[in-house]
Amino acid sequence: MAAKPSIPKGTRDFSPIEMAKRNYIFNTIREVFHLYGYQQIETPAMENLSTLMGKYGEEGDKLLFKIQNSGDFTKGVSDEELLERNTAKLATKMCEKGLRYDLTVPFARFVVMNRNEISFPFKRFQIQPVWRADRPQKGRYREFYQCDADVVGSDSLLNEVELIQLMDEVFTRFAIRVSIKMNNRKILTGIAEIIGAPEKIVDITVAIDKLDKIGLDKVNEELASKGISAEAIELLQPIILLEGTNAEKVGVLKNVLAASETGLKGVEEMEYILRKIDKLGIRCDFELDLTLARGLNYYTGAIFEVKALDVQIGSITGGGRYDNLTGVFGLPGVSGVGISFGADRIYDVLNQLELYPEDSLLTTQLMFVNFGETEEEYCLERIAELRKVGIRTEIYPEAAKMKKQMSYADNKKIPFVALVGESEMRDNKISLKNMITGEQSVLTLEELIQAVQ
């Protein structure tokens, strides 16, 4: 007996109705990207490992899916190395490529390779899948789509302001209540300096980024395990637990970070963005959150994260400023800022809250019942006319029993069914049944078009 087929953990199949929902998400985000002047590109699913490694921090490197070299993948590996079973070392010899972990690093590689053809500032978006060797759980998958928008070649904080507007527009269109959270890596660097642990900035940011997931006590335990002193951890507490309005938080930070030039620069950037946003009538909740760190090491300025307010799930959008990313590929001095919408998590949120508009789940609008070859030929001509005016139309492919054909229409949730027999062909008419109300009427082709549209 053949083994029952399955798919890898952390991946999913999507049915036609699920794909209709996902396309509603992609199309909505794509429309807003275009609205703000972003142009679409695509990059390969796999990149050279040299492109990916070292860009996401130690934790990120562990989550890279590495692709085994084709052919004799053990070529160049000694028997001693095989017996040693050092997985990391073997991977460097057996794997030259990996599946992309995100869209930002491949984008940076794209910019460097195409810098002579690109006009700066360059505003691009990508909607493609990424892969992470993570432990699958609710809202976390090994294969998932990201919808990224980035601007490179501009230091202006107006880009950050526009990205906040863009996020606000997307989630307003989805009717999802969210909180857009913002922080600045310069502020976090300043905090590390003030508490006397500037060399521990990465350990500090990685730990406090987990505050929502593991709680304050566990964060403090992780900080201690990284060699951060008890005094420094104590100094950190009132800062990461700071409450109040955005303006009040900025006021406190100015005092706390008075001795840190880098920290004050971050506060200045934060103030500029807040001042602009206050005048633009953002509809979503917008909060300065000092616990927001974003684990990825390449962020250098403003950082963003979006949380759904009515569903328990991780962040559904994130991003920030990354001044140094293209430098590792030989193009220093190109600043960038971007955000990434987590399409799969947005999909789960929209499902839980049942927020899909009815017209977004596009299916066949009209199905012709098939009574036989003569009727079939008559129907095919009318179907061609209906499709020309944009009505999504199909005919049942064979003259099956009426019950079977009507069940097919029911299962596909087709709202109208057309029936054409001898009398309809003689009078050049079509019987139209409304599958929702049960009403049936005999119409000309023009009248049928009006009724269905």
Please tell me about this protein's structure:
The chain has 453 residues and is α+β, with helices and mostly antiparallel strands. The chain folds into two domains: 16-353, 2-Layer Sandwich (BirA Bifunctional Protein, domain 2); 363-452, 3-Layer(aba) Sandwich (Rossmann fold), CATH 3.40.50. Helix content is 43%, strand content 18%. The chain has an eight-stranded mixed sheet. A five-stranded mixed sheet has the order 13-12-14-15-16. Strands 2-4-3 form a three-stranded antiparallel sheet. It is globular, with a radius of gyration of 28 Å. The two termini are 51 Å apart. The model has no long low-confidence stretch (mean pLDDT 89).
What number of structural domains do the residues give? Answer: 2
> What's the N-to-C terminus distance?
51 Å
**What structural class do helix, strand and pairing data support?**
alpha+beta
Which stretches are low in confidence, meaning pLDDT under 50 for 5 or more residues running?
none
Work out the helicity level.
Answer: 40-55%
- Mean of all residue-level pLDDT scores: 89
Q: Supply Rg.
A: 28 Å
CATH architecture of the largest domain: 2-Layer Sandwich
Assign the CATH class of the largest domain.
Alpha Beta
Number of DSSP-assigned strands:
16
The CATH topology of the largest domain, please? Answer: BirA Bifunctional Protein, domain 2
Q: Which outline best applies? A: globular
The CATH homologous superfamily of the largest domain is termed Bira Bifunctional Protein, Domain 2
Q: Widest sheet: strand order?
A: 1-5-6-11-10-9-7-8
Q: How many separate helices? A: 18
Instruction: Outline the biggest β-sheet.
Output: 8 strands, mixed
Q: What share of residues are in beta strands?
A: 15-25%
